[in-house]
Amino acid sequence: MKILLATFPILILLGIYFYNDPFKTLYHYDSYFSKDGLQVVVLNKDFVSTETFINNYPKYHYDSYIFGSSRSMYYSIAEWEKHINSTRCFHFDASGESLYGIERKINMLHERHVPIKNALIIFDEQACAISKDQPDALIYRKHPLLAGISRFDYEIDYLKSFFDISFLNSYLHYLVTHKGIDKLSLNDVPHHYEVATNEVSFPKIEHMIDSKTDSFYASKEKVFYIRDTVQKYAPQTIKEAQMKELVNIKRIFDENHTSYRIVMSPIYDQLKFNRDDMAIMDSLFGKQNIFDFSGINDITQNKHNYYEAAHYRPAVATRIMDSIYAH
Question: Which residues of the chain have pLDDT under 50?
């Protein structure tokens, strides 16, 4: 009886975990996000994207993919389809996506003999620097199929994360009050989600900015800091591990006769992609397939092109696609 009383709180918490599945890694879901609503607990988008692809490929037979971090979310499938010869497109994005993650996804498609007719890679220096999995940051961790780890080990790490005291306090508070906590909330504005394409968008944010532009940017005065007027370059990141991954991506693209574009994102920090890294990318993939929008330019100069310093708006993504597919 004493043992039962001592362990009862833990058993209750385990019951909550296995019943609610807060990280949505335990069970099958037709859709990991509601079509329109709030995502209270931040999910691992790499896991969501991979599971959604595996679940839906037999139905939609995808052959074209957008790869990248959360910045790639704003490259609308509807706009992309105007420039390519396919309507079977899929957003294969992940939070804080890395070169490692992009290569693993492309390799998985190839090993499953899935066609890769078109590919759009949204890239940056930060993504290029990461050439391995990040097991200590669960939101960035790769799906077990991509990372080559057991599903059991993957689930155990999430169970441990559930019992983190700061998360647990916030989650239990949400269950009782039904009010989101900053540590749990992905965004306080509802998203729109299309499961067929795995596309997440935030139309209400766009509407809010368009209707209250001045007040929106006035509230983010500290976010949009003053940048240096002298062009600065990122440190070189392409080394032996990165080179192997890039070479494998190029090999798979060649074997699939893939039509591809690689975009260096226009990030608000205006840091230019490293010259030596760019020379390697040009040499490997061809200058005609590499499009550098990083650094100081008319996109990065205008704060109205951004939600905050890390993410640019869909209109910028549409402009970039119009540009890179112009010829």
Answer: 186-187
